[in-house]
């Protein structure tokens, strides 16, 4: 159905953008295979030992991601514990994604990008007013997606913490300068996450159009769960 | 400081127990000083009669403060061995709390220092670092977790010899009706790390004894502080030192102040904060 709307235009990718839907990074029986539209949210429970492949279909599309222990969402992803435990701020193959109690939630079983981010946080209507100005306050943002998708699982503002940003590039320079720069991913690149216990995964397909976290071109994601 | 049975006599009745309890009045190296102007350690340049809180937090201890907007808080690392892992919540609306990602991303700067705002996820400044004589801080690693302390020291419980920062923050939070869900990653003062080109954390540790950090409350706050070793502290033993906390009345940052005018991002953050406080009558 095509309607006329007076809502300000929503960002969407260039119709000529190359899209590579790729496939699972780790072999196994496919138990879930879903597409996430540009700007949209997604959630799912990945059972212990199953592997979630996230496909960067259009390239350099940030997949903002939070993790919760499925049986007790008070235990959730902790960027700080993940960083402290491995002694490195970047996420790569082998990184254990730890909870606020320091325990493993998932582990990076495969990765086709030099380094993945967990220090850049999520965009929000409010933080957009700081970074870009109050003229951006009306725009949709990852925090909206997290709140809306989280509410389906009983989660609220208290459950929003520093997140992962798959396919986003946030270097820390020698003087401490930190920021979102051009990505190192490309169409069809993937990351694979093995669940160390049953984990609720919440993803925002970042709708940000004021920085290069999605190359200013909102593209889809593909979520595939395989059972080895 | 005396603990244990004071004398040889029995404490079989209430009168004896009361006399024994009253005989314990003393001082310790870690205690609050009430009223605050009786502190043995008044901060330099501060009129003691403006002090609203004074305390020394024990190694492996914690504190929690409910502070008014415009309160200035000085944390002092007495012997160079303190590590203050700090969380701040908007007391009027505790779902708004420290967001370390925004605190690093919005100023485009990972390392905390004088002038740096501690931002919430709601586009506002909860507190400003208005003075810093240490320069050794960390906004990456958070407070130590239970699993880390169990692996490193064999115990993480608050009653044990090596409490985790997170265990202490949970107890501090509980005093304000806050739970584990209310504890996002914290910032740590007086123990520093730097990030190498490959992302590796390099330990810079302590700047030495007597260093301090001043925080200015830009909204009414709940401040939670755990004083436990930093998780990247390379020493195998649990080394912590006393942490001194003083608070006094000051005024919140205005748009004309240097910290607000420093960058366009910070200026907008203070604009949001001042508008919120005005609308809410804070
Ligand atoms: Zn976003």
From TrEMBL, chain B:
InterPro entries: DUF1989, UAAP1
All residue ranges annotated as the DUF1989 domain in the record: 55-222
Domain of life: Bacteria
NCBIfam families: urea_degr_2
Designated name of the protein: Urea carboxylase
